[in-house]
Amino acid sequence: MSATATVVPSTNGKPHDSFTMYDSSPTFQMARRQLHSVGEVLNVDEGILDRLSVPKRAMVVSVPVRMDNGEIEVFSGYRVQHSLTSGPSKGGLRYHPDVDLGEVAALAMWMSWKCGIMNLPFGGAKGGISCDPSQLSFGEKERLTRRFTEEVLAIIGPRQDVMAPDMGTDEQTMAWIYDTYSMKVGYACPEIVTGKPVELGGCIGRREATGRGVTYCILEAMKVLDYQPEESTAVVQGFGNVGSVACQELAQRGVKIIAIGDRFGAIRNDRGINIPALLAHVAKGKLLHEFPEAEPIDSSELLTIPCTVLLPAALERVIHGGNANKLRCRILAEGANGPTTVEADEILQRSDIFIIPDVLCNAGGVTVSYFEWVQDIQQLMWSEDMVNQKLSELMLRAFHRVLDLARQRRLTMRTAALSLGVLKVAREKERRGLYP
Ligand code: GLU
Prior knowledge:
Blueprint: H1 20-23, H2 26-41, H3 46-52, E1 57-66, E2 72-81, E3 89-96, H4 101-117, E4 123-130, H5 138-151, E5 161-165, H6 171-185, H7 206-225, E6 233-237, H8 241-252, E7 256-262, E8 265-268, H9 275-283, E9 295-297, E10 307-312, E11 329-333, H10 342-349, E12 354-356, H11 358-361, H12 364-378, H13 384-409, H14 413-432
Parallel strand pairs: 3-4, 3-5, 6-7, 6-10, 10-11, 11-12
Antiparallel strand pairs: 1-2, 2-4, 7-8, 8-9
Helix pairs in contact: 2-4, 2-14, 4-14, 5-6, 7-8, 7-12, 7-13, 12-13, 13-14
């Protein structure tokens, strides 16, 4: 454990001493504190909450890769399975320099709550490799991915643990995992991963699913609060898979996107950024902040711009104790996982900002992953209309279950969402009992 880490008490008040390997991560501490706080409002056995406050299992692997210059580099890889109670564990694989065991464990825990809220037959998992994918060639990425797959082979499988894209990984990454796994087992096994290319059994609309799900939640929140999309504005942090799709979907419905940022910079145009033109600009390999039809602004200003909807769609913990009281949005739609710290949450509770918490807001991705897994197992492909219609139906149902619980029990949207997720897993654990 690092010298700065504080041990968060377990849900029954006793400090755990057996999982300090996760605790040095502020992201894991945040996930544990969230669970601890919903534990206080739920009528769940403390032993079960204790079991849920740590991952079921974690695997740390060294991944040696021959680089293009002939030298060997060794990367650290992780796969954490938080829960296997409801079915196979499910969650993305992230390639980012900051990936560590604690962050992956926190993301795995959030996946469990996400699957619970959406009522999917999965537990939560997450994986990652500490690397900078922008510095790796295509061949290096392929060798890294295939060797990682080989290293975690013992704990993955279509009924055990199913990976999907996350930050820094994409359809191609999933195609390599699919191929490596299939070569090992001796038959084509598309249901080993989701988010594959469509021609390999991927689901139409999976790539857009997270951004679409975010949009459905935002439009529903606008209805509840009586805002018209055509009179609303949005500020988006992140222009990757989630941010860029949400920008397109929102703009198509008349929402004016007035500012967007990515890790290199940010832009603003109060008359509304032309999203198709920005997409074409970025597709040419140009930087977002060099887009000529908007003003470049300092990235630090982005989150505090007055707007109807603020959509963080990048990294964790960007809204914290230091900036939470400067937010000037009416709706905070958490497209990223864990963008709001526990301290920020306490500050936001005293404001009139309507929060669509991450575990609900970005659950569209894993929902369409579930559709993909089902289609691969049944070898029966759905149409895009069916995917989008089912996605919208499940997102809206979950949104209203969370909102109703929040209103009935006077909880925040986050506590209500986490409660639904935690309760689903806890009840299943209770009914199954403890083995042996
Ligand atoms: N990585 C995505 C997430 O954080 C998707 C996971 C999946 O589809 O399994 O929700």
